[in-house]
Each structure stands twice: as structure tokens, then as C-alpha cells.
Fold:
Amino acid sequence: MSERRPIRLKRNSAPWRAWLMLLSLSAASAVLGVAQNPAPTNGFVVLDRVIAVVNRHAILATDIDDEMRLAVLDPGRAGLGVLTRARALDQVISRTLIQQQIHQEDAEAAQPPQAEVDARTAEIRKELPACVHLNCATDAGWKAFLAANGLTPERVDSYLRYRLQILRFIEDRFRQGIHISPEEIATYYHDTLIPQYAAGETIPPLGKVSPRIEEILLQQKVNVLFGDWLKSLREQGDVEVLDPSYEAPNNPDNAGRGNE
Structure:
């Protein structure tokens, strides 16, 4: 690994302007009496700090904290190990790039209705493994779960809305025009599905499982297209990590999608 050099901000650079804007906003918050972090350090109050800048959008340390708290709502993280701050930053960068693209194209079209957000929340309360032992299906259990993880109903609603918005955008953008041929379905059936059955087990006929195989193959192609598109966004965008302690892994494939 090459030696990392300290990152310096030029006074006319976008990160420097973002930092000045952050200080202005923080000062305004202090004047209004909004204490983001009242604990003084050597006579100063630490309000927040910029970790990265994505196309002039500042990602703050509190954004990383928020991402790590919200990870408890993602069933897709099971078996992926501990979510590090570097990985959380990587996820926030990817989602920021996607959201910027959504707003450039058609933000309204990707907006999920409130009923869809409420339905997803209800699913989480009933099925999320981390929530089962608190009986989150009840109001008391859900309240206890949120409190234990430093979350609020409003923040959960906003987070799920963002995730559903991204999923709708991906579906609309990449599923259109993808065709799965009968030959591809038959190949998957013979080469992938049948070998999963042990000797003597009843193998379902091709006609019965064709719709499910088609959906699997369709999703695989969507994932490939989405991964290539997100990689392109990262390469073309202006992404600058200002804190050298964040060794962000380059794995954009998992950002924004989850297992919804």
C-alpha cells in the first residue's frame, strides 16, 4: 500500500467552500440554540466534521453515525460481518451518487407512496431478526427497539423511503428491455437447479419453476447493469475523501439495494 499523504484543502476548492458553508450553518445553529454536541473539547464545541465530498455534497461524520445505526434495519447484512465506518462511508457515497442521479432525471417518478413505505415498515417489525425478541409487531416492542438503537419513527420512515425510491429507480431504469429467452431458462434449470436436488428427491417440472427462474435471471442481469452504471458514476463523479483514516473499500455493488 502506498504511503498516504495528508489531504490539504485549497481555498478555492469545492471541499473548502463546503467546509466554510458547514461552519456557517453550524454557527447559525449555535445562534439559534441548537446544540448538536454540547461536550466542550479544550474550550471548543465540536459541531461536526466533513468526511468526504461527493459532487460538492458534504458527507459528515454524523452521516456515517446515522448509516451505522440504520444498518440494524437491513436484513441483507446478516453474515456480512461488522459494518466498519469505512464501509459505511462507502455505502453513503454510493447512495449519494444514486440520489443525485435520480434528482437529475426524474425524482417524482421514483417517489414511493406512503402506503408502500408503511407496508415495508410493517414487514420489518414482523420479520427483522434483530427485532423478533422485542416483539416489534406491538407498539411497545417497536418503541423499545427504536430506543435501543438510537432511532426514531420519523428517521426510519425517511430511510425506508430513500431505499424504496432507489429500488424503484433501478427497476425502471434497468429492467426495461431485458429479455430472458426460453433457452436461458432451460439452461439454468438443467445446469443450476437440478444439481441442487439430492438423489431420490422430487424435481419440479420445468414449466412449474420457469417463472421463478426467469425472475432470478432477470435480477442477475439487472444487478450487472446496475453495478456497471454505479462504477461509471464513481469514475465520472468528483468524489474526495478528506479523512485519510477512512480506507474505503471499492465495492459499490451492495450500496442502496439491500434485500428489500
Notes: The first strand starts at residue 40 and ends at 41.
